[in-house]
Please model this.
Amino acid sequence: MEKLKRLQENSLFLLPSVILTLVLGIYPLIWMLRYMFYDYVGYGEALFVGLDNFSRLFRDEQFWASVGNTFVFAGGKLLLTIPLSLLLAVLLNGKLRGRNLLRGIYFMPTVISTAVISVVFYNIFNSYNGMINQLLMKYHLIGQPIDWLGPKHAMLTVIIVAVWGAVGNYMLLFLAGLQSIPQDLYESAAIDGAHAGQRFWHITIPMLGPVMQMIIMLAIIASLKGYESIMVITEGGPIGKTEVMYLYLYKLLFPVSTGSPVTQQFGYGSAVGFATAIIVGAITAGYYFLSKRMNKVF
Amino acid sequence: MNQPSMAEKKPALQAAKWITRPIMWLFLLITVLLTLFPILMTILGSLKTGAEMMSGGDLLPKEWQFRNYMEAWQQTNFARFTWNSVFLSVISTVGTLLVAAMAAYVVDRRDFPGKTLYVGVQASTMFISVGAIVLRPQFDLMVKLNLNSSLWGVILILISAHSSTFFILQGFYKSIPRELDEAAMVDGSGFIRTFFKIILPLLTPGLGVAGLFAFRHAWNEYILPLVFTMTSPHLQTLTVGLANLRYGSSAAMQIHLMMAGACLSILPMLVVYILANKTFIQVTAGSVKG
Model:
């Protein structure tokens, strides 16, 4: 009797969470796993086509170009974000006047909507009346306006925007890691005459090891997944130069929203969605095992 | 034992400090300016005239155009957008907190079959990333349930992503002693009553922290409300309405209004951040300490 009552109470409290997770979390995954074997455009009959979508995927140059763009975007973002945020964290970990204020400022971008600030960045980098070009021209740093959103620089521009939004977050994560390093290690090294650079390479980096491994993993996943700001700033253009794979996937499912040459294809889109998840998963797992092995070597 | 400080011991090092310190401060100054630049440009731009934005001009507005806000509010539907954003964010935050708090309570205090499975599923939903694909079946489902003609469909989807709230709250439950529940039960208070009257009030700090993050997520969400409001502009939130201005045909002439709209979206979050920045910073930092 008592047991039954407890079971009822448990179910009552878990039910909203379980139902929402099943219906809006798990069911869409099953939907994808089913329709990736179908030819389905959203209306009419869904036709079972076996692995056709996947053989199309391997021949789809637009998809592989978007995978390449994803790597360039994610790689560029990581190469700028990680060193910069680590450097800021090290500086702000010391005894510094106003360091709480500085932390607060660097972290500020993370509370601002990516879409909204991307609209602002679009206007900042706009080539003809954008604020950056206006400023640079005014102080005669450039003669001609730079085409920030043109085919040559668009990728760099969206990377800069992504770095702007990310540095504060990773700075904070690094700071948390730094604060767990015992201070007396630094003190005894200083007494032994180690200068700041030596202390950084021989104490900070090795001691930060496991935390850094985790932070970089989070950063890799986030940089592969991000496409919101690209969608607002360049819509993947010009001529597909900034189209990352999650944006390509989005356009297959919701082509009406942005000017895109593709038509809606739920079956093929499911296959692309599955493939992108596998790619992200493989990179994450690859990094995880590689960094574990590196840890053992050092 | 009293160690002599580094500076006393090595004059060379002290000299080096005279060089490295200014470089460090210069670096910090530049990065601070770069961080604040787009935010300042938004605020200053929102107070300029359209013509001033087009032609360049000075950093500061010639005359402070506070009526840009009036214009954005009235002409471009920002009143509607703001109300939608507030409605969506408040309801989904409360819903997320309630659903996650109830689930986390049972998981923390009781044993039941499938508990490990449940926690495992919650954890894995945070790591699987199939992108926009889930929006399609979610959207079709909401159409079937007739929830696509209001923001309730979006709200339900936002609440369904409650796993991070669940884990934050689970941590807070550990600090509420179990004896309290037991004592209440002995006094004849039922399970539900104990939860709502005794436990939930004690969970207030945790709810505040988790609520802050849920609110930030909902307020800043873009793609989900975009997909759901493509054919119903009156349901658009600030993020969607603003991004649409950028695609509009008269976008170039409306930069000052765009900036005013961006301010309307950014400023409430900045105020929340300034009031609660310790919480944001501590919880974000805590996520790697495990």
Observations:
- The domain at 66-297 of chain A is CATH 1.10.3720.10 (MetI-like fold).
